[in-house]
Specification:
Mean pLDDT: 91
Structural class: alpha+beta
Number of helices: 5
Strand order of the largest sheet: 4-3-7-1-2-6-5
Largest sheet: 7 strands, antiparallel
Low-confidence stretches: none
Radius of gyration: 20 Å
Order of helices and strands: HEEEEEEEEHEEEEHEHEHE
Helix content: 10-25%
Distance between the termini: 18 Å
Strand content: 35-45%
Number of strands: 15
Shape: globular
Number of domains: 1
């Protein structure tokens, strides 16, 4: 099936949130480490994981080391050399088409706060999962792709509605997107909530399918991606989403009590984005 507006909207919102945290919030750490073999990959691809995930991929972030290659036994390797297929930025992986038997290392910007999509409800997400603090790495091993790291913001599209706005078939598409923030301190939670709520009455770019940065392996399609390079033209041409309202929701005392029994070091906040985009859905 062809992607529709809500697909473009949701992907664009994830890109916006990533850029906001890394650019305005400077929420990243420049790291260097070895990459370790993991077994959770497929189709003849060999995956090697850094201790940290996710990796920053946006070259518009000042000071961030955006990884595009790795070192094999100290020799720098780019895509196409020695079987290197690229970087999976979300999982913090270096991918190869063959087994690598020499040390793999690399320099990268690790996000302080990950951004992930979900479809589970709040209660299931918070109570049925065990999380670990990805910023407190105690042993030098690769991350496991099936573990649930925090700090993280889980993003879910909760509602979408079209309302007529003008003659000729123009509609306002209004979305409500929930951001479930799982921080490792009250300071980090307050800073993240403030950063997001301050975006009220602003715009962010709506990306088309051919503008999305990632390929099927989770790497960059064009080798680089500069988010800030899209902003001016997108706003000028009307290809941008308007943040009408930002609201906070408190966890119920029952959910908070259950969460504390399982994950004592997590600070949770919930923010809802109310957005609007004018379009002609029937054209």
């Amino acid at each position: 099936m062809k992607p529709q507006y809500n697909n473009f909207y949701f992907s664009s919102t994830l890109l916006w949130l990533d850029n906001l945290l890394l650019d305005k919030g400077q929420a990243y750490y420049n790291k260097g480490s070895l990459f370790y073999p993991v077994n959770q990959y497929y189709n003849g691809i060999y995956a090697y994981a850094a201790p940290y995930k996710q990796f920053a991929y946006d070259s518009s972030i000042s000071g961030a080391n955006i990884i595009t290659g790795v070192y094999l036994n100290g020799n720098y390797t780019t895509i196409g050399q020695n079987g290197f297929l690229g970087i999976n930025y979300e999982e913090g992986l270096a991918l190869f088409d063959r087994e690598i038997k020499v040390p793999i290392s690399g320099n990268y910007a690790a996000k302080e706060i990950d951004v992930k999509s979900i479809n589970e409800n709040d209660e299931y997400l918070l109570i049925q999962n065990k999380f670990y603090n990805k910023n407190n790495i105690l042993t030098a091993t690769g991350n496991l792709t099936n573990q649930q790291p925090f700090p993280v913001i889980y993003v879910r599209n909760d509602d979408s509605e079209n309302t007529p706005s003008a003659f000729g078939g123009e509609y306002a598409t209004n979305n409500i997107t929930r951001l479930i923030i799982m921080a490792d301190s009250q300071f980090q939670l307050d800073a993240t909530v403030s950063l997001i709520t301050d975006r009220i009455q602003t715009y962010y770019p709506l990306f088309d399918l051919n503008e999305m940065p990632f390929n099927v392996l989770g790497g960059l399609k064009n080798g680089t991606f500069n988010y800030n390079g899209f902003i001016t033209d997108k706003i000028r041409t009307g290809k941008s989403i308007f943040i009408k309202e930002v609201s906070m929701t408190r966890l119920s005392s029952v959910i908070l009590s259950e969460l504390r029994k399982i994950n004592t070091q997590i600070y949770v906040g919930i923010v809802d984005l109310h957005t609007e985009f004018f379009r002609y859905p029937r054209c």
